[in-house]
Amino acid sequence: MIVEPDGRVHATAVLVGDRGILISGPSGSGKSSIANELMRRAAGRGVFAALICDDQCLLQAISGRLVCAAPASLQGGVEVRGSGLHRVDFETCGVIHLAVELTKPGRAIRFASDATILLEGVSIPHLILPEQEVEAACRAVEASLFQAFWKK
Fold this sequence. Notes:
This is AAA family ATPase. It comes from Phyllobacterium zundukense. This protein is α+β, with helices and mostly antiparallel strands. It has one domain (8-146): 3-Layer(aba) Sandwich (Rossmann fold). 18% of the residues lie in helices and 41% in strands. The chain has helices at residues 31-44, 134-146, and strands spanning 8-16, 19-24, 49-53, 56-62, 65-69, 77-80, 84-87, 93-95, 98-103, 116-119, 122-130. The termini are far apart. The relative contact order is 0.21. The mean pLDDT is 90.
């Protein structure tokens, strides 16, 4: 994940419940689709969910937490590939608790229970998942954030 000097990153960010997820990857890798699906699944469970931003995110460390904000020109819009930009519920910023990096399937990491990434000087849990696998990515994100890890 490449963070520009001004804190800008090519990514999508979403809130599910009280957890923020930052999803990065190349164009067409499924960032917006995963965010849309996470919001749809949360709504089906009666859980709050909202987009922070799609395509461009502004990251900043504040009091030891990674905060993501949407550029004003992108607030409330999410891409649906083949259809265009659509309006969704959104928050202008949120604290990020998990970074998801989408990559080619051969580079994805199957078990990443203790992996972290340092963004803007803040260490957060990090999943490296195969691009274009929306359902599997949603399951991995939900398990990572909302289920306890099993230890032998």
